[in-house]
Structures
1.
Amino acid sequence: MKIPFFKYQGTGNDFILIDNRKNEYFLSKEQIEKICERRFGIGADGLMLLNERPGYDFEMKYYNADGKEGSMCGNGGRCMIKFVYHLGIHREQYKFLAVDGPHEAEIDIDGIVSLKMKDVRTIKRFHGDYIVDTGSPHYIKMVNHVMEYEVYKKGSEIRHSKEFEDEGINVNFVELTDEPDKIIVRTYERGVEDETLSCGTGVTASALVCYHNENGFNEVEVKTLGGFLSVEFDKSDETRYENIWLCGPAEKVYEGTVEI
């Protein structure tokens, strides 16, 4: 069976997207893993199915590169929005369903996709670092000289430590800059089991930790290996972060068919 697919990327975080609104495709874990493999497959950080969902514009079903169903993917969600736009679904504001619940999204006149993330009620401290759930669980570690940091080695050690080895956790290494509203983030992702060029939920988690206004509106610009993203949010108290929007580019790379 030949399946049409589309390849999209959001700041270097790349995904295979399949239009499954007719409910034609049922892919096994092994098939998804093979498709996402970069040497013998198409290659991607994850695969997403576009499904019909009553009451919403669509449902987004996300799978990690290891073939397992994943948690929320921020850059994946932004790529999905650009995908449905290219399919002819045009909205001033999109409403879709993901594994962590409903989401909203918009595309501005410059093609920038803004995705509303779920509210965050708490940021946990853990051995001097932070743990934040932004639809996916994230470990945040502040470091100096992050561009020279051993992200794969240190990220793998934390992800596979006894506290996190069963469920896994994404590990973000964050450097503050001279400007309080700008940070640099590198991420080791579970499921991919490697560093990715960008991680939307990780960038979001890192920005929340690095707020610059104690209360009220915050906007944090984030540099990743794949480009720039921004995170806007309202911080109302020490444990409440609302109206969280992840903003950045999402582009089609190519399309084709894959034999299953």
2.
Amino acid sequence: MQHKTVFANGVRVVSEHIPHARTVCVGIWVDVGARDEHDLTNGCSHFVEHMLFKGTPSRSASQIAMELDVLGGMSNAFTSKDVTCYYGMVLDSQLPRLVDLLADFFLNSLFADEEIERERQVIMQEISMVEDTPEEQVHELFEGLLWGHHPLGNTILGPMEVVSRMDRQKLLDHVKTFYTPDRIVFAAAGNVQHQDFCDLVVSSFASLQQQDGELRKRREPHELPLTRKIFTKPLEQVHVTMGTYGMPITSEERYRLMLLNILLGGNMSSRLFQEIREKRGLAYSVHSYLDAYSDSGYLGIYLGVNPDNVNRSLAVIRDELDKLRHGPVTDAELANAKDYACTGLFLAADNLEMRMTRIARNELYFGRDVDFDEVVAGLTQVTAADVCQLAGNLFGRGMTSAVLGPVADKDVEWNLLTGRAGS
């Protein structure tokens, strides 16, 4: 069962007691990410995430690392377009020590200049690593085309030229602006009693002061005209990412979209996987995926192919999009997709990190618990006609596309992505 407490300053504490567990996973979630930055601060959220592990008045960076290791279990952090999270999993008996450590570096990090310079080099290597990984780079290029000059089109790590000039004051300003009580969710899942957990958190977080002034509102993105672009690079493969605008994560149509994605390219029996890989051998990796935020989202398709097979692959993708637009989706296909979605849901329920993530994200996006029964009921109600209608709405507008690899404009026949008229 999930429990929720809201401190007077706005900090939210959510937990889920799982009595058979011997461990507990704890995360501090902050409602801030790359979409809250602008061109001169792009990468700030991610840089701050790194710096919180680099020392406090009572613990050095090496002591923080050692203490996390001594606790056993695991610990990590990540930054996305719209959230930043710091989390760890330990034996239930070690929960007080973990909360104390998380609270210390979250609230008391020094942001020492020498640590900033050292970590700057680490982050710049991380940026270079993405540029050397075309499967990741093509997604960044695609999102830049899809969202344009909106912050969602920026990268999470930030560009080299901005990161190279990031200084202590800019990082501290970011924390002051965004690490405010109303944006913080403390989440735990496992063998944890809610009141005991609140008692551990309250001494450090209940005293946080809300900043004066109006709450910062995020700028909603707008749909842009269809864009297709070639990024020529000497690689062995051509990496293609394409997509179309979807819907916010809280949309009433989210269950239809989940099933549409599974049918299109979400697993090994999906249409794209079967037609492109299994029947034609055009690609080793091909899949579709969803990315959604509080106010927007998209459905994407990725594949890596031999340069000679780009146009054949585009034609197959367009055929499969048209088939979903015009139907039919068989009862067996839809039933299999529902089973796949529900199985994934319950398999994830056996992972405490996933359960902690789930309750935190539900709080951030929905403001309430969305239990398993509600999700299963939502999936169950979707019909084949619902899926086809949604496919017609999404795929009729065309696909913004980024192509990265040893090809030029003359090599790609974009007209192959033009489908049949009608819906």
3.
Amino acid sequence: MLREGTLRSTGDTPTVHPGGAREILVLCHRIPYPPHKGDKIRSFHLVRHLAERGWRIHLGMLADDPGDLIHREALRPYCASLAVQRMPWWRRLRSPLGAIRGTSFSVECFRDGSLQDYVDTVLASRPIEAALAVSAPMAEYLRATPGPLPPRMLLDLVDVDSEKWRAYAGRTAWPLNRVYALEARLLGRYERLVSEMFQITLLVTEAESSLFRRIGGAKDKVRTLSNGVDLEYFVPPDPAARVRGRTVFCGAMDYRPNIDAMVWFATAVLPRLRRRLPETTLTIVGANPTPPVRALAALPGVRVTGGVGDVRPYVAEAALSVAPMRLARGVQNKVLEAMAMGKAVLATPQAFEGIEAVAGQDLAVAPDDPEAFAAAALKLLLSPEAAASMGACARRRVEQGYSWSARLAPLENMLG
């Protein structure tokens, strides 16, 4: 049996790979399956899109959650070969090497010798025409390989992650704020450095693309490739499922922007709503809730589900989907998914950024001020007809241009 991390065939040639197909190396910092959280959603649809268009994919990836290892089998039909390496918790202890090596804490955290062996083997033994590195840390595998690089290489930064760390530093007390500020500087320098070795650097919104150009990224190489939504999976439910006063939030609950959003909404906004509409509740749906999130369940009207197999029933029951993000970058998939299900969505400007929709028609937008956000939520909760009309507009909006095939269509020209 071949160990994980070695080049191995999936056996029978998948039907999505016709004879003579072009070959591509794709590197992801997390197993892109199941596609139920931000980076996994985008990575999975990139892989599926490439496979459906005839590319033979060699997929290298890491698993920071041991439970994700069972999902590698779901990816085999899309791949000519694949390798996955576990990323144990202690790997984070060597992150400070980034300050010594001139990379970053994130890059060192995701560095793996066995995955590097896989990358080197694929590049040396296969006629690889292109490479796609999803996230800055995965660019290091191409930067470190001793062999020749593919003639076409794309770096998908998705968001300018260094700016995320800068935002964390601004909202964190000493001494962690110093650590976050250092990572912002290290990763920002690294993002600019590796963008020079790729033909194209991708960002998920025009705002992120403009930001990367502004801070010194390879200006003439930056392109925007936005996210889509699965319009066949996320469909409008029976209106009878809706529960008066119920609000919902879906997201990974060990992710700091989501934690911040829920603590703020549950403690600062929800009490204001319940004073005017006592039956108002909040359902927080998402895996790995941290202690601050679990503690919210003790508040009146708050339910914390933890991980669920399917978020759709929880969204179906909601009268309003909220996205009260105060720390946010790029496109919020949770917003697109709720819109696809025909739900009225209330978002902060931070969560609305990158969504091509009309505020006030396709979704509601309110500032991250407790009184203003509560007033906007109450307006929709007290008017089911207005919420339903907004939800119908939301569904039409995503149908008009948010299919994954439409969003990823420019990828073909970028790969040459």
4.
Amino acid sequence: MLLAACDPAPPPTPAPAPTPTLPTALMGDEPVEPLFASPDYGVQAFLWWKPDIAMRDLNLTAKMGFGWVKQEIPWREIEGIEKGKRDWYRPDLIVGLAEDAGLNLVARLDRQPFWTQADQSVYHDNIPPENLQDFGDFCGALAERYRGRIAAYQIWNEPNLSREWGGQQPDPAAYTALLQVCYEAIKAADPDAIVISAGLAPTGTDDATAMPDTRFLQGMYDAGAAAYFDVLGANAPGYKAPPELDPAEAAANPEYGGGRWFAFRHVEDLRAIMVANGDGRKQVAILEMGWTLDEVNPDYAWFAVDEQTQAEYLVRAYEYAAEHWQPWIGLMTTIYIAEFHWTSADEQWWWAIVLPDGTPRPAYNALREMEKR
């Protein structure tokens, strides 16, 4: 799984990106209704295949002082054969292990079964189903089974990228329709569950392959999405910029990429769109955040940092949010507790704060020692 849309290495002298017109206040006219602590501390792990490693990684999370773990719940791994024929073995195990570790669970829902595709002659890793109600039925069955046990649900991932939308052009109205059926089904089964919209990929690409997250989010609001999520999801890789860097400086400075979306604080641009659409009472959940060490893959090497910088920037990102983004910032999810089979050939390996064998990197130790507010 790739992090988010990591745009190709910027040209030596990119044209400055236009600065959007944004309200100066990020609070809105109504008080924020917090569903998470501000901030709340989470990490993404991979608990699906090996129970012994799952227990190890959940214990690593708990020892870090983080209260939340994010885990993918692939639809196809539960209902892969036919509609209504569901295998709950692995989610039952994961939910129980997370409870035993004293952790709250965020379940990311996507990865369609083959039988749901309109065109069954082509394999798609992640494409919305032909019949959206099939996804809604799955969301409702999951929420009913784990009522009161899965605290939050993330609905899809990065739908503003064609590669996460079955090769189709990103369509915020189509994503809103998918979000609606899942939201309504979850709330009918477990009214107290928190529904988080998909983390949007920070990108300036605007063509058939991707849509800027800011434009996609406004398209969601135009399609009525405000009624179908409790917390806005965002992805916030830091690229080369330190976490405190103003997005305007990232846009003006080729060293940082030449676009606002190359700054961790680009989250503020999404928050401003929420406020402009009268949705400021909700919190934002960062579903992916981190800095990579990758000096191997050319699309990533230009913004790689060293291990000590990775550790410092992650701690400073949490500190910046605690000092400047309360009360509207909610869950902040670091990537990753590495999956057991990753190697240095996988770009995800370079983002991870714990290696596949459980060895902590400096970032893990720094986050463990960080004061939790």
